[in-house]
Amino acid sequence: MKSLLAGGAALTVLSNIDWAKAAEMAAEAVRKGKINIVWFEGQSCTGDTTSIIQATDPDLVQVLLGASHLAGPGTVGLAFHDTIMPEWGEGAIEILHLAERGAYDPYVLVLEGSIPDENHARKHCNDPNHCGYYCFVGEENGRVVTCTEWVRRLAKRAVAVLTFGACASYGGIPANKVLEPPPGWTYPSWSLAPTGAIGFFDDPIRGYKGLISRTADMPEFTPYFKYIYEDCDPILSPDSGCKPAVAVPGCPANGNGMLRVLVHMVLAALYPNLVPLPKASQWLDQYARPKYIFGRTVHDQCPRAGYYAAGAFRVNPGDNDAKCLFAVGCKGPASNCPWNKYGWVNGVGGPTRTGGVCIGCTMPGFSDAFEPFYKPLPAPATPSAPAALATTVGAAAVGAIVGYAMSKKGKSE
Ligand code: SF4
Ligand code: SF4
Prior knowledge:
- By secondary structure, the protein is of the alpha/beta class.
- It folds into two domains: 2-292, NADH:ubiquinone oxidoreductase-like, 20kDa subunit (Rossmann fold); 299-412, Irregular (Cytochrome-c3 Hydrogenase, Chain A, domain 2).
- It is 33% helix and 9% strand.
- The chain contains 17 helices and seven strands.
- It has helices at residues 8-15, 19-31, 47-53, 60-65, 89-100, 118-122, 147-157, 166-170, 222-229, 255-270, 280-283, 291-294, 305-309, 339-342, 351-354, 387-392, 395-412; strands at residues 35-41, 76-81, 107-112, 136-140, 143-146, 160-164, 245-248.
- A five-stranded parallel beta sheet has the order 2-1-3-6-7, sandwiched between helices. Strands 4-5 form a two-stranded antiparallel ribbon.
- It starts with 7 loop residues before the first helix and ends with a helix.
- The model is unreliable at 1-14 and 380-413 (pLDDT under 50).
- Residues 298-299, 302, 304-305, 308, 324-326, 330, 332-333, 352, 358, 400 line the site of one iron/sulfur cluster.
């Protein structure tokens, strides 16, 4: 930490700071608020953080400083976020310890990035204190604390878990399989990725169990498992036996989408009579995503749908036309996502809106099951179609594929 600063004066000032006390003061400031956010990053590129900063409706400043009748200044505190928090080093780690002990109750735990299989990492290292880890944050008694360990500890007192991005939700790109394993390669036990990475929720397309389903080894996740799989009534309390867990996937997840779900959770915690939190079956889909965001496919809401209906398909990915992108690999019929309709930032952008194919980043299985990005979706019945993706491709996709085939037939005739 000190070596980051070259100036002698600044170094002197910093070395005089009592970091534990500074962290306690910061904690006290946030404690005055009514609810906190602990944002924890595992194996992540921080794309979702970049994305949430671009949220416009509401924006992050409105949420944190209060810009509505419901939430005033100090209502929501961002207790921990390793990319944008002012504390660093030991002061930042101390906040995680304080959260673990209840100093930031109530807090919502936000996860960004996937979680690796540390058992696999340890197999390849002889020093258990300082190597053989894929992901860790800080040390404790001379030993690193792994990301898995932090997520377990933080999930215990959290009132809800939100996963932002494909990685945290289902494993995302870090969970992609090794295409050409080197000789002697042994696969980690959790997934077919080099680090065995998985997400918080199950990935039924790739067949990976998420953290939420590993309750035999990690009982901290049982209340979230009950919410998703047993459909119990949620209670936003650290000691509740049923706590909500919600996925907001994407690569990255959309800023407005993440912030709306976060605000939903905050309002449900603050005003349960005004914004009651429903059971999972009432508002989440089979992949734990809110139906109010992910209820329809890209294809259902695509601005190019007229061209699709007319059988006008783009021929080369880079062609300068407004035609449907199905034939150049668009995965819109197999992906649930609204941002091509609403625009990515403030009504602007989104792949099919701007000429790029949908790559399926809001789905479990991403990106393994959606590659090659520029290859058209397989028909579910064809032998070459990956079985898992064929399951994903629902009625809309079948309709699209059949429509595409018919238009080709019509054209050739
Ligand atoms: S989901 Fe995409 S944007 Fe988010 S951390 Fe993973 S790779 Fe980065
Ligand atoms: S296939 Fe893709 S580009 Fe064509 S209408 Fe569907 S979502 Fe839009």
